[in-house]
Amino acid sequence: LLKSSMTSKAAALRMRFLMAGCSNRKYYKIVVARSVSGRDVEEYDQVGFYDPYINDHREKLVALNIDKIKHWLVRGAQPTLTVAMLLGLSGLLPVHPRSYLIAKRNREELKRLAEENTTD
Amino acid sequence: MLHFRRFLASVHSPELLSRFTAPVVQTLLRNLTRPDFDKIAKEAASFEKTKAIPYRFLTDAELNVAREKAKRKIDEMLQMPLVLDPNADSVDRIISTDPDLESFDQSKMVFIDISMSAKEMTRSVTSRNTDGSLRHVNLRDQRRIINSIYEMEGRSPTPPPALANDEMLSRLLEANEHRYALDWACVQFEPDDPIFVSITNKVYDDIDKRGIYSTLLGTRHYGGLVFYLTSLRNHAKLLASYIKDKKLQDTVWLLQLHATLHNDLSEPADGSMESLINACMQLAELLGGKSLDIIQKSLERLEETIEK
Q1: Which of B23, B29, B121, B160 could disulfide-link B223, Cβ–Cβ 3.0 to 4.6 Å?
Q2: Residue B262 three-state SS
Q3: How far apart are alpha carbons B191 and B224 in whole angstroms?
């Protein structure tokens, strides 16, 4: 029988970012840890990484250890907002509502900029 | 897309390519390679750290075991790189569309599955494009991305300039580093990568142009070279070089290879010189053009030496 963290008295199990790299070149590891542990503590497992910088091929790379993510989701790890958004964009989970919101805002911004450029 | 593939695969028909792995063809290519144990052993030794050569006393049985082990190692080192139709898949297949996600970010996001259960080169690589669609990344990009994350011994994350660039490759070839270029290409690329096919073709063409077949003789690449030339019907010069060097057994094998691949030549019936010369003439006539002249000349010189 799997013991979900919901039944235990320990702090919430999270799937979240751990910031790595250096100030001007950050990248994030997707990590499973208790919510009370420090930000850069990989308590249980690393399940992927996210590189926020666009590479030479105009891509942002995200590695996801699907097997491990599924395992930890079952064990009750709650993804944080950005991790949940990434999982939604990847297709593993449903697309997060916030992704739709950000997309809509971006489209409106782009439209506004386009109109400004045409009027100039 | 079919047109594009044909352009890249224009040197071979897929049907001919599929014959590469036929046991008959493989045996002939292996024979023609004339394994040179010293050449292979030297290459193997150069990669290993220098260590004292061990000398051992062995019984006959142990000696046989050691010989078998060495033979297996040599067979492994002589494995011919596969000749395949270059897979120029450049299409990102759509999984789902989502117009509401358009412009969710400045660039597309690529997701790589790093599960232990996923197999190396066929890991799922998907991308969420800026138009909101979720797609399987095309084969070329998939391999590039997997290479940048997963290290393979000897393989660099990005293709080295010497292989990716025509000019740089020519420099390597001018310096007679054909084997080096091919070894490197084997490590860096998959056999059906269009870049791999293009590099090997260029190297083989250069060798054929300069007639320096001995650079690859005794190595794992020789089979690929002979297959390339024979399947394209460009093996006249190679045949002539065999005749010139009195490599008559090799000549027979090459004729047998042509017969197997093209089904338009009757092989030399018996082991006599006359039937061999006849078969060569028949091949020369089949090939025609310059090839006819090249083979005829070499046969004339052979006959002169026989008369002497």
Answers
A1: B29
A2: helix
A3: 11
In sign, the C-alpha dihedral spanning B219, B221, B226, B227 is: positive
Calpha distance B113→B163 (Å, rounded): 28
Q: By CA distance, what is B133's nearest residue in A?
A: A89
- Is the Cβ pair A60, B98 closer than 8 Å? no
**Count of CB contacts below 8 A, A vs B?**
84
Q: Do A62 and B95 touch (CB under 8 A)?
A: no
Specify burial of residue A112 (Cβ count, 10 A radius: 0-12, 13-18, 19+). Answer: exposed
Chain B residues with CB under 8 Å of a chain A CB are: 95-96, 98, 100-118, 124, 126-128, 132, 134, 141, 144-145, 148-149
- Give residue B287's region: left, alpha or beta (phi > 0; psi -120 to 50): alpha
Which residues touch B201 (CB under 8 Å, ≥6 apart)?
B11, B228
Give the residue numbers in A contacting B (CB under 8 Å), as ranges: 48, 54, 57-68, 86, 89-91, 95, 99-100, 102-104, 106-107, 110
Mutate to test the interface with A, among B98, B106, B114, B149 (most CBs of A within 10 A): B114
Contact B96 A102 (CB under 8 A): no
Label the pairing between strands A13-22 and A78-79.
parallel
- Alpha carbon distance B15, B27 (integer Å): 19
B113 to A102: CB separation less than 8 angstroms, yes or no: no
Cβ contact, residue pair B141, A57, below 8 Å: yes
Cα B27 to Cα B75: distance, rounded to the nearest angstrom: 12
Give the closest residue to B110 by CA, choosing from A95, A62, A8, A91.
A62
> What pTM did the predictor assign?
0.79
Q: What is the ipTM of this complex?
A: 0.92
Q: Where are the beta strands (DSSP E) in chain A?
A: 13-22, 25-34, 45-50, 59-64, 78-79
pLDDT in single tens digits along all 308 residues of chain B = 333 333 344 456 778 888 899 999 999 999 999 887 777 777 666 666 667 778 899 999 999 999 899 888 888 888 999 998 887 777 889 999 999 999 999 999 999 999 999 888 889 999 999 999 999 999 889 988 998 899 888 888 888 888 878 899 999 999 999 999 999 999 999 898 888 999 999 999 999 999 999 999 988 999 999 999 999 989 999 999 998 898 889 999 999 999 998 888 776 666 788 888 888 888 888 888 888 888 888 888 888 887 77
